[in-house]
From TrEMBL:
The keyword Flavoprotein applies. Its EC number is 7.1.1.-. This is NADH-quinone oxidoreductase subunit F. Pfam families: Complex1_51K (PF01512), NADH_4Fe-4S (PF10589). It comes from Pseudomonas mercuritolerans. GO terms for molecular function: NADH dehydrogenase (quinone) (non-electrogenic) activity. Belongs to the complex I 51 kDa subunit family. It catalyses: a quinone + NADH + 5 H(+)(in) = a quinol + NAD(+) + 4 H(+)(out). The gene is nuoF.
Amino acid sequence: MTLTSFGPANRIQRSAETHPLTWRLRDDGEAVWLDEYQAKNGYAAARKAFAEMDQDAIVQTVKDAGLKGRGGAGFPTGVKWGLMPKDESINIRYLLCNADEMEPNTWKDRMLMEQLPHLLIEGMLISARALKTYRGYIFLRGEYTTAAKHLNRAVEEAKAAGLLGKNILGSGFDFELFVHTGAGRYICGEETALINSLEGRRANPRSKPPFPAAVGVWGKPTCVNNVETLCNVPAIIADGVDWYKSLAREGSEDMGTKLMGFSGKVKNPGLWELPFGVTGRELFEDYAGGMRDGFKLKAWQPGGAGTGFLLPEHLDAQMYAGGIAKVGTRMGTGLAMAVDDSVNMVSLLRNMEQFFARESCGFCTPCRDGLPWSVKLLMAIEQGKGQPGDIETLLGLVGFLGPGKTFCAHAPGAVEPLGSAIKYFRPEFEAGIAPVSAAVPPLARPIVIGA
């Protein structure tokens, strides 16, 4: 894994003024432990929050800064915090960090946890103060063994320094933090499925309402935030709302910076902290270096496997939620994937849908049965055995599994790339349809959904 926060020439150095998430990173890629983190102004924001701000002021500052969730949904963080109950009699509340980074082609949270574990802990400490939560959990993807080791060490360092535990910084505020490794399911990225898993239950999403802010872990008020979201909090508290807003490019409706990346057959695959509003072309050409020699860009996904495919002509879209929405898909996690001209789109989609079908929790019928159905059709088309009507059936499934049609957002995310691939590369799907044979009985032909 590489991480640069500037162009290929590496001429511009990271600084606290422009790169709030990554300026403390070591050049050798090793973790920044407590002494070094504090030497780099670490926990100064926490000390300010505890000494100078009450809980409501912290929430309002985050809200005014325009911080939005960095896990893919993009919900305003301050608004989410404001949903937590104000009733002082409710003395048991929880803060959960969603670190179950299972989205294919996404590894941004892994970098933060492995190399800057104290940044996440400080973000959670300030958030806990704002939300009056006495206990926090980092729900970590089980395969992230290095991140688990580093986070556990950082938690112990913070405890020994009086930054976690009882009477933090002499304030009378108590906060315990635990690292919980999951068993490895994509669906745990959905916050209520994560809560069920943390409680020892099957990782199925819950019906909402009630929302976690009212009824969460063990029936108590709970706030769930993504790793990168929480890591933005210290800089906002330390340097203020106006500074944070000034980081984004003109035209962007999202504030601050974002960890963005590019993978695939590009010359410089990696991860960079960039201001919201940079264009996809800047990300692809200036940072990722364009395609490797001998390959051409055929398509790209802007933010993980659950986002729709775009064409090279869409690279001029600005990288923020509204900018990507203008070209027909979602920002997602902000880590893009380049598809080169040697890739068959049917094979790529079959691979993706197999993953999503396997990771379905199986709770609702459209997702449980619809995704495996799409895999069977794609396998037939891939082998040149597709039948007339198969493409229409796939498009019907895209509609039936779309937003609002299933219990959670798993299936809509799964079929979004399928619908866009058929839209832009339909001839590749048509090439897998076998000639009509009189020997095929009419009842053996596929049922066309929505025809």
